[in-house]
Amino acid sequence: MGIHRDDLADFLRRSRERLTPRDVGLVEGPRRRTPGLRREEVAALAGMSADYYMRLEQARSPQPSVQMLAALTHALRLTTDERDHLYLLAGHRPPEGARAGEYLRPSMLYLLDRLDSVPVQVLSDLGDLLAQNDMAQALFGCVCRVAKEDRNIVLRWFTEPDVRNHFAAEEHEEHSRQLVADLRAAVTRRGDDAAARTLVTRLRAASADFAALWDRHEVAVRRSHPYRLMHPDLGRIEFDCEVLATPAADQRLRVFTPPPGGTEALDMLRVLGPRHRHDTAATRGISSGS
Known about the structure:
about 290 residues; alpha+beta; Lambda_DNA-bd_dom_sf; MLTR_LBD; DNA binding
């Protein structure tokens, strides 16, 4: 399966030109002459160099990796059909076996791009972390080095001790119970679903605590709950988490707001910024585990 460089370049250019800065949460200046987004804007959204993206549009680049294609899919707000077309033009097979909730819904992307003053995350119904904004990254850490299949908040809570260390110890038991009860509800909604079965099997094999809670057969969808975090740089901080679900309940938006009078935590997170890394969070992502 070879790369179709000219067609790939044309598709990328046309996809870029049909977007406006507002579509991706950018401010449109008064003297903007470029139709659509600029090349450097797409490159920044995709996390690649402007020179590399320019070579893609000029049909001069080597074959892009599937990781690059996934980043471009997000940056250019491609539909599933457009994503598959992009992969084929680049000489790769499109992703197969996509399960419910795996790809970000446009409505979730819209909210994620615009709710930039508070930490926000998007998760699948099974707890897979799909995306987070800059404020959430400053709060929870970057998961860029964590394999995609391991970015599940339930899995990480029960298998990575470092994740629990960033929560107040007195809340560990209740967090565990709520996570399992919520997962039980999601698994039941999915019915005979391979991804759900695989996750539960993996969790039961990896954690006796999870297995014991799972066998209790408690069911409770998490809609709102307080968070008491032990941030490695800011110390103990508190947030209220509101959970907004899609109509199909396959994706959730988690919005973290400070309690009344607690906006100081947000100010400190802005100072840290999205590029801030904790030694643990850079490779683990702190409270992605609850």
